[in-house]
Amino acid sequence: MEKRIIECVPNFSEGRDKNIIKQITDAIESVENVKLIDVDMGYATNRTVVTFVGEPEFVVEAAFRAAAKAKELIDMTKHKGAHPRFGATDVCPLVPVANITMEETVDYARKLAQRIGEELEYPVYCYEFAAFKPERKNLANVRAGEYEGLPEKLKKEEWKPDFGPAIFVPKTGATAVGARKFLVAYNINLNTTSTRRANAIAFDVREKGRPLREGNPITGPIKKDEHGKEIWIPGTLKAVKGIGWFIDEYGIAQVSLNLTDLDVTPLHIAFEEVCKKAEARGVRVTGSEIVGVVPLKAMLDAGKYFLKKQHRSLGIPDEEIVRIAIKSLGLNELYPFDPKKKIIEYILQEEEEKKTRKKLINMSLKAFVEETASESPAPGGGSVSAAIGAMGAALGTMVANLSSHKPGWDDKWELYSDWAEKGKAYYSELLKLVDEDTIAFNKVMDAFGLPNNTPEEKEIRNKAIQEATKYAMEIPFKVMNVAYNSMEVMLEMAKIGNPNSVSDAGVGAIAAKACIYGAFLNVKINAASYNDKEYVNLLIKEATQILELAIKKEDEILKIVNEKIGI
Fold it and tell me: What is the CATH number of the domain that holds 462?
């Protein structure tokens, strides 16, 4: 299962004392599996914005520890700053990044809010998607009156906090905990030094647009409707805020955008629209920059968008798709764009690999083979079977990719791209199972290593052994299923793929069958030690059926392959 990832961006009402902020970020980093991404201290605002990411449970724990430390160290009775605020931990939004829904994120945000309110004993409000009441969705409404207005605000029934006591805590104030969409700060570079032109382009695209003026469109008075309300001409992009500015460091003007909902306006659409509006004003876009970090999906969506425009297959490795996105968006123009430092999932992956043993799939082929040949019992036949299956599915994917680019088949590129994407999904899943099989083996070994002296210890050990053994059966069984399903790609590519690569489809089928047979042996050897024989019999029956179907499918594919080869 893919890891669920959320981002937390708490804002603390302290931007001048580095020691205080260091203690708060230390509290965050005291939680394992959380990665601190950025700490942005502002002297004038007397405010620090901290960004960290990780799996939801760990992020929520880190956010609570940070709020507790802020309560301990920050004194709101002495706070002055240019930014609106009403508490030591002023706002604390949670943001879904990968493999988690907004509804799930809201649940985590409300649990965090409840814990802060009840354990730290001060008022907490929920805002944005986590709001319990419509009028509390907008942060500005929740924070209206700021810290100084809290004593009177808390007396009003309509502003009773969602969690915590409805009393004014002078030292700490209040906190707003929310759930919101991921925000990307995205600047688009122009071949001009004119802030006015950059502003004009920003007004063309931002959702708010520009005011409608009488006479001179720049200096004329703003037109008003019959109710005296200003009339605005909306821009072309929803969920986008924007302004133009000049950057001394690079000597260029930029259109600076905040993309507040990537599902509504993704990176590539914002880039393309600014290109269009810039060209209409005689200005050229030369590149762009992402300030801070970005979810992997945003980069993959951008890369796929540009690949589709070229009628190129999308079934290529993620790293290649990201590279296309970087080139197409011009993200290397001002300074190198390092995916390992800018893409959230890659940052977490690198951090995890520092703490754990190197993954088998990240080894060179030579190192993997030598690791398998060593005296260690893992990796063994299960991991090798999954690796063989991944290579088989990769061969089917290769044939689809080659077919999508075959001269004279231009009208079929999308068909083959779809098959390549299917193949990619299969080999990606099998690659994960290479390491998962070794993890399953290690779980069994760990269970056998548990204490075994008292009756209670024996019971705990036996239960752990059975649970680990069941898992060690389920992983190779999953390998069998995925590898068998991947054979649909090899079959279709044998039928309609590039005839020059038909032998590769055949080899892919042979590899898939070998993978299935090897995984089946691992299911059986673990099943021998599992006590629930009814479960074992059912699993073995299903596994046997998969193997029989795979043998038939391999025969079908090889018959087509050999007929096409003709020798």
Answer: 1.20.120.680
Burial (0-12, 13-18, 19+ Cβ within 10 Å), 331: buried
Quote the Cα angle for 214-216-221, to 5°: 45
Q: What is the dihedral of CA 181, 184, 190, 196, to 10 degrees?
A: 60
Please report whether residue 352 resides in a domain: no
In this prediction, the residues of the chain whose per-residue pLDDT falls under 50 are: none
Annotated catalytic residue 83: yes
Residue with tokens 């990201």: 322
Residue 291 confidence (pLDDT): 84
Please tell me the distance from the alpha carbon of residue 491 to that of residue 292, in angstroms, as a whole number: 44
Q: Position of tokens 């409840």?
A: 114
Q: For the domain that residue 74 is a member of, what is the CATH number?
A: 3.30.990.10
Pair 373, 269 in one domain: no
The pLDDT value recorded for residue 355 is: 62
Q: In the annotation, is 17 catalytic?
A: no
Q: Indicate which residue of 90, 162, 437, 504 is catalytic.
A: 437
Closest C-alpha among 140, 125, 112 to residue 173 = 125
In three-state secondary structure terms, 407 is coil
Domain co-membership, 415 together with 368 = yes
476-515 per-position pLDDT tens digit = 999 999 999 999 999 999 999 999 999 999 999 999 999 9
Instruction: Check 17, 83, 107, 405 and give the catalytic one.
Output: 83
pLDDT for 356: 61
CA distance linking residue 219 with residue 317, whole number of Å: 52
The β-bridge partners of 51 are 38
The Cβ of residue 101 has, within 10 Å, a number of other Cβ atoms equal to 10
pTM for the model stands at 0.85
Residue 232 CA to residue 323 CA, distance in Å, equals: 39
What integer pLDDT is reported at residue 357 of this predicted model?
61
Q: How many structural domains does the chain have?
A: 3
Same domain, 402 and 517: yes
